[in-house]
Amino acid sequence: PRFMDVTQWTRPAVLGMAGYAPGEQPQAAERVIKLNTNENPYAPPQAVLDAMGAALGDALRLYPEPDSRSVREAAARAYGHGLQPQQVVAGNGSDDLLTIILRTFVDPGETVAALDPTYTLYEPLVTLQGGRYASAPWREDGGLPVDELAGLRAKVIFVTRPNAPTGHVCALSEVVELCTKTQAHGVVVLDEAYGDFADDHGLGLLPDCPNLIVTRSFSKSMCLAGARIGLGFMSVAIAEQMHKVRDSYNLDRVAQVAATAALDNLDAYAPLIAKIKSERARLTAALRQRGFDAPESQANFVLAKIPAGALDGRGWLAALRQKGILVRYFGHDPRLSDKLRITVGAPHENDALLAAVDGILVG
Ligand code: PMP
């Protein structure tokens, strides 16, 4: 075939992008301990697997519910707070919800804001939408710079709580203050992908904050990263707009069945989440003993500053990789280049990580 220069018709916004680099995803054949993308170390509860298995039959001929109605009804039942199904939008992963939000509210040239550092997907999504990405640093104490953010007059402001990759949480009262101060300009998205691992969450704020959207992921606390499920909670009025924008069948039939079964079996998740929280405390303490600076995290990962020594961040990443352990490294960001983000695994995985760290420290 003749060479064709496709860049001549590619959108400039796309040409200018480096492309989002998600964490390495080795598939089953490769035996590694995978602590790099904050998945859950445990299998989904049997009731969820059984429901998914039962969905693998003749019904796959048929389209799923276009608006994931059963999932949204199950979510309203499961989460309380007086939530109605009309206040819920389901996404193909919570990343899908982020895209839907931007496509609903942001025209080319309009501003979208987030904190710094934060989830690295927001910026490419905003760029693709033709928006202008602005960021404000977290306050020194981990709080929200409310006035600075409000001053940006953004259409959408992303607040990640717990934040990635730091694992810290801002005060919920600051989220309310931000919503109040930005009501005239746009929506505040409280990204609670890791919310189930935190001490508190923002669903209870919705009645007081008409411009608030809370997003949740089933990839972390619900052991379903492979099924791609996320939920957004918001006012009925916002949900109506977002439903016009999302793909008609954005959750496949098996994912919808999985989501409903997971929501109907929240009790089965409680011990798994408790285990991850207690392992988080153990891992944090053990890393500190070994000279890492690891602040408290309210997520299912720990951001650990490497001890002074022969290896830099990239060196640690490679040394752990050689011992079959994957962690995440954000070397492009100077404030993060001396840190590793380590997902909290099952006890034997955390033990393996600590043993590998000991091996690397003795050289
Ligand atoms: N938000 C944050 C802060 C995340 O870290 C992630 C996971 N990479 C997501 C959203 C997206 O999760 P998912 O699309 O798997 O639900």
TrEMBL record:
Transmembrane segments: none
Domain Aminotransferase class I/classII large: 31-357
Catalyzed reactions per annotation: L-histidinol phosphate + 2-oxoglutarate = 3-(imidazol-4-yl)-2-oxopropyl phosphate + L-glutamate
Organism: Magnetofaba australis IT-1
Modified-residue entries (N6-(pyridoxal phosphate)lysine), positions: K220
UniProt pathway: Amino-acid biosynthesis; L-histidine biosynthesis; L-histidine from 5-phospho-alpha-D-ribose 1-diphosphate: step 7/9
EC number: 2.6.1.9
Record key words, sorted: Amino-acid biosynthesis, Aminotransferase, Histidine biosynthesis, Pyridoxal phosphate, Transferase
Record-linked HAMAP family: HisC_aminotrans_2
GO molecular function (one): histidinol-phosphate transaminase activity
Class of this enzyme: transferase
Name used for this protein in its record: Histidinol-phosphate aminotransferase
Gene Ontology BP terms: L-histidine biosynthetic process
